Amino acid sequence: MADPPRLLVFFASLISLRFCGADKGSDIRGFTPFQFVVEPVDTLAVRGLPAVLNCSAASDAPVRVEWKKDGTFLNLVADDRKRQLADGSLLISAVVHSKHNKPDEGVYQCVATIDNLGTISSRTARLTVAGLPRFLSQPEGVSVRSGGTEMLSCEVTEELAPFTRWERDGRPVELDGRVIQLPSGALVISNGSQSDAGLYRCSIDGLGPAKTTDEAQLQVSAEKLETLQGPVAVVKVVGESVLLPCVMKGYPVPVIRWTLNDRPIDESRERFAVIGGGSLQIVNLTEEDAGIYVCQADSGNMTSEIQAELTVHVPPRFLTRPSNTYAQESMDIIFECDVTGSPPPTVKWMKDGDTVIPSDYFRMQHNLQVLGLVKSDEGFYQCLAENDAGNVQASAQLIILDLASGPSERNDPTPSAPRDVVASLVSTRFIKLTWRLPAEPHGENITYSVFYSLEGTNRERVENTSGPGEMQVTIQNLVPDTKYTFRVVASNANGPGESSTPLTVATQLEVQVPGPAPNLQVVSVGTSSVTLSWDRPHSIYQSTLVYDATTDVDVTGLSYTMTGLKTFTEYSFRVVAYNKHGPGVSTEDVVVRTLSDVPSAAPQNLTLEVLNSTSIMVRWQPPPTGTLNGELTGYRLRYRKGLRRADAAEISTSQLFQLIEGLEKGKVYTVRVSASTVNGSGPTTEWIAAETFENDLDESQVPGVPSSLHVRPLVNRIVVSWTPPENQDVLVRGYKIGYGIGSPHAHTVTLDYKQRFYSIDNLDPSSHYVITLKAFNNMGEGIPIYNSATTRPQSDPIDPDIDFYELFNNPYTPAPDPTPMLPPVGVQATVLSHDTVKVSWADNSLAKNQKITDSRYYTIRWKTNIPANTKYKTANTTTLFHTVTALKPNTLYEFSVMVTKSRRSSTWSMTAHGTTFESIPSSAPKDVTVISKEGNPRIININWQPPTEANGKITGYIIYYSTDVDAEVHDWVVEPVLGNRLTHQIQGLTLDTTYYYKIQARNSKGMGPMSDAVQFHTPKGKSSTSLRLARITGRQEKRVLVIVVIVSVGVFTIIAVIAGAVLCTRRSNSHQKKKRAACKSSTGSHKYKNSSKDLNPPDLWIHHERLELKPMDKSPEPNPVMTETPIPRTAQDPAAEPSHQRRGESLRHEAEESRRGGRPKMMMPFDSQPPQPVISAHPIHSLDHLHHHHHHYHLPPRGYLHHQISLRAPATPSVFSDRPPSAGESAALLYRDAVRGYIYIMAFAWFCWVLQWTP
């Protein structure tokens, strides 16, 4: 058992270490901000003049900038014309350029390096040097008619065009919307006048001495239509401007119009402008501006067309940038790099300025995958994307963490190596490993990591088991017939343990299956067929043709014609070759579209509306989806007079309506419509008839008063019905209802002229409303009719759903017709899409062929029951079906139909129901709120409500947040939320920072719109001073706690030792007095010379039955003396020798008694001459030991130990060697050790105190 002082020291050391090490932690190197602030751009330089390529990089560490030209670093020391500016830019003091020497022209790139950390490269920039000023042609004299257009040529090279200028009669020509300069340098003068006449010349300025052309004279004369310059194909970049020239002259002055992809250009649009009499200028180009532009000139007696294609390129833009990454050796990582652009950009990767070469461990397409990391992979990686419109770059830093490099502060055991690692299953491309539990797992929940590498390489990859305790793993994606080395490491809560012995296993040789069929060609040969051909791969027996990713066709040859395909539809094809070993590698998918054809269906919902005695409005809808069979080019409408065959007039239009005018009064006309593609017209609709009015209704006066007005009050609404004015010869274009409490002028509703009823909703119960109704036309409003009603009290039942046609079954006459028509039957609702339902029915009042030959029409009504008070919507048609559009997605609708002929109408048919398909949400989540979490300002809770128009079941939400509200969407941080939860927690935010949040809902069809950005500012954290004070206060509290503990332990120790020493001393004194009395009574008294008193010292009897008398050390003097007194005796004492002799005999007697079993009696030897003081050290027994043996040993008082006593350890065990210390000795020694322990504790505490204050 340890001594108490040592226990105290150990306990205090633990406490001190606990608080001394509280602030220590592992140091992980952070990412270094490193990026370009300015990158070089394409520059046009002038020979002999200076040129600057700007570049600047920013970082916390010192940055070294270098320059490359055409991929090679520039040696600026040896080139006195080039030097690098302080910010890193490259200055060329005088550009050198000649026909055979072009040292400055080329592609430049800025390279920034941080020593011992990494390198990044800027985007590339091309330096172009303008050539010698020269003209490719001279302007010629021309003439222009007043008001006409003319062009003066000034042909120069493309790089010199920006430096060209025009002069008239020696003065600069001022350019405006009438006088413009084309990109080629030519000058266009439109709306010419006499003031434009003069001598013109072209000059090149800004490239040294000005150079001018010969003068050309502009005169005024008559001319025919002539094309001076038309548009040509041009390629531009998004955001740039383009000028498409179209310069025509002639008399009369030609009118110029522009079309884009056969559609007229709206010249009122802000970005489009026709200048210079006909040239089209487009600013701030977008991708949608690309296409075929046609310039059409019409001078009345002549026309001319010139077309050209505008190609708009989009520079590369990052959708996803690579991000800084921490990783460990043997891990696999992916740097993401998703870019977009037109044409599609190419992507390459660089590491520390060097191109990354694809290999087994560096795999790349757009993203870069690094397998089996090693320490040398650390550095800066860059994704460079480039197309014809430009190039961009983005970088990320990779840091390899070495977790085992720091000093370990814990010595907890880790597992030993896994045992019996074997490859239980070996295939061509995978290996399955199994093993046994380590001999010393040192814990539960043991996990395993398998490290593997190609034999002979030092790049390891790691595969972890799927769960604790699993002792097998399958390594996938291996190379056939290749050796791999495997080792397994077990890990417990304390970390990874020892590695198993490496195991080398070779994958099996792969069976030779065919490769991809080379040279796959797919050609569309018809509207429903394509022909495929390919070359033979090795080891082929037959092929399987796979198309549209769903259908397989076995083929034995090298070509195949696929038939039965859909018209004008895209299909994807691929070929897989087979041999005796099975299927081989598939080819890439090849996409082809079948040829277009004429539409296979007629337009839908053709309706005729007679407007007056000489015009009919025709309306229709496009053919059903999937039946156009090509791009729609327009519609052909044919109409004729009468129901029989007659010559029909034809009208072409691209709209969905057409007004037919100039018809005869009181005649029946029939109309049909067909749709057209580039292949021709498709099937036509049935002939639909309508009869023009005998006489036009009068609109020279306002309508009369409506003949009746009826009201039906309910709790929250009033149903109003009416009949038209009695004078049917006056045209009525609509009705106006006014209503209000006590006054009819509070609210006004305008209704169609066909309507005969209306429900005034959202009224107050038990309220008196005044209602007015009046008809109107273009002349004004007629005389109103009044009525009033009081709504029912709130206690009445809820308003029922009113069937207006049952209330007013004949809305066109005051009294119902005694012979109503039969309602339609067999109503069906067929859902076509998320917003379209086709309603069809049969009419039993028609002949069996269901052909309509009279002027009847059908009214379709529909509504949804959510909300309950939804109003019906109606539409009219003259066919037995109608396609209802503009419906809400994922909504149940009910449909019913009625038929009307002349002034007779049927009742409503039975209802049919249909639920529209789901669609993407059309509205954003609403009521977005952000609140900070109490107690942790770095965490926020964001709450929202579902979108109003979910258009289906919501399957999740996406939360976007950023500190820049104007950032691109792909730059926002994304947090997905699964299910229909309406709250989410975002952690790890920065204090005192403004964040913006948007939310987007999604369903099975896709993503909806984003909500408006919601701003939230995170709370401020404590200042650095407050944090420092808090940290110092915390340290002081820890130190105070250390001192309190140490002082408390020390004081307690001292009190305990003193108390023990006092108790032991008192007990020893009382026992010694008893011993003296016993010795005095047993031995009698003795007389000594030179003493005034008789002293009777006691014999030192040791009551121990197993005590054995041993030989004593002889005194160095010749006459040793045995005495019973503690008083020192001198050599002159005459009684010394007799006493010695008596004591010698007594000792021999005692020894004999001891051998006979009697009690031994021991005397203490003294030298006749006092020697120098000698003290022998004895081991200090613990207090417990002393108490345990108290009944065996009588401890003598400390006063009997004088300096004359020599306690020598004999060569053999003796009674003295087993003698325990006295109580006084124990107390003294215990006190001494306690003081020493207290001193050690205070010294150690002072040492910790110094460490805490040492930075």
Q: Describe it for me?
A:
The two termini are 40 Å apart. The strands form 23 sheets. Strands 2, 5, 6, 9, 10 and 11 form a six-stranded mixed sheet that branches. Strands 12, 14, 15, 18, 19 and 20 form a six-stranded mixed sheet that branches. Helix 1 runs parallel beside helix 6. Helix content is 11%, strand content 38%. It is mostly beta strands and 1255 residues long. The relative contact order is 0.04. The longest helix has 60 residues, at 1024-1083.
What is the strand tally? 89
Structural shape: extended
**Average pLDDT metric:** 78
Low-confidence stretches: 1-26, 405-409, 809-818, 1023-1027, 1077-1148, 1150-1218
Radius of gyration: 54 Å
How many strands, which pairing sense, and closed or not: the largest β-sheet? 6 strands, mixed
**Roughly how much helix do the residues carry, as a percent range?**
10-25%
> How widely separated are the two ends?
40 Å
Structural class: mainly beta
Number of separate helices: 6
Strand content: 35-45%
Give the SSE map:
Elements lengths: L3 H17 L13 E5 L4 E3 L5 E3 L2 E4 L4 E6 L2 E2 L8 E3 L5 E3 L13 E9 L3 E4 L3 E5 L12 E2 L6 E3 L11 E5 L2 E2 L6 E3 L5 E3 L8 E7 L6 E2 L3 E4 L6 E4 L4 E4 L4 E3 L2 E3 L5 E6 L2 E2 L7 E4 L3 E4 L8 E8 L4 E18 L4 E4 L4 E3 L2 E5 L3 E6 L2 E2 L6 E3 L3 E3 L8 E9 L2 E12 L17 E8 L4 E6 L10 E8 L6 E4 L7 E4 L7 E10 L2 E5 L3 E4 L14 E4 L5 E4 L8 E6 L3 E5 L3 E4 L7 E10 L2 E5 L3 E4 L10 E7 L5 E6 L12 E8 L7 E5 L3 E4 L7 E10 L2 E5 L3 E4 L14 E8 L4 E8 L8 E8 L5 E6 L4 E4 L7 E10 L2 E2 L3 E6 L13 H4 L17 E7 L5 E6 L14 E8 L8 E5 L3 E4 L7 E10 L2 E2 ...
Parallel strand pairs: 2-11, 12-20, 22-30, 31-39
Antiparallel strand pairs: 1-4, 3-8, 5-6, 5-9, 7-8, 9-10, 9-11, 13-17, 14-15, 14-18, 16-17, 18-19, 18-20, 21-24, 23-28, 25-26, 25-29, 27-28, 29-30, 30-33, 32-37, 34-35, 34-38, 36-37, 38-39, 40-41, 41-44, 42-43, 42-45, 45-46, 45-47, 48-49, 49-52, 50-51, 50-53, 53-54, 53-55, 56-57, 57-60, 58-59, ...
Helix pairs in contact: 1-3, 1-6, 3-6
